[in-house]
Amino acid sequence: KKLPASAKFGVYLAYKYYLSLFAKIRKKSSKEILESRIRIPNAQKAYVAFKSYLRYKAAYL
């Protein structure tokens, strides 16, 4: 509640992005995590951003 209104969407978007990244990391073995790069595809990032924007505009936060 103390977060400036202008920063709420950016913080929410970062939270949702890292949540999806964490979900992907949890599915990997420790060896895979150490040996390879784990990333979220651009299409999925766009989907997360779009969905987050809709929730932000609908004041669902």
Radius of gyration: 14 Å
Total number of helical segments? 3
Runs in which pLDDT lies below 50 for 5 or more consecutive residues are none
Beta percentage is under 5%
* Structural class designation: mainly alpha
Overall description:
- The protein is an all-alpha fold and 61 residues long.
- The chain has three helices and no strands.
- It has one domain (5-57).
- The chain has helices at 5-26, 30-35, 42-57.
- Helix 1 packs across helix 3.
- The chain is elongated and about 40 Å long.
- It starts with a helix and ends with a helix.
Helix-strand layout with pairing:
Blueprint: H1 5-26, H2 30-35, H3 42-57
Helix pairs in contact: 1-3
Descriptive terms for the model:
61 residues, elongated, 72% helix
Summarize the structure.
This protein is mainly α and 61 residues long. It has helices at residues 5-26, 30-35, 42-57.
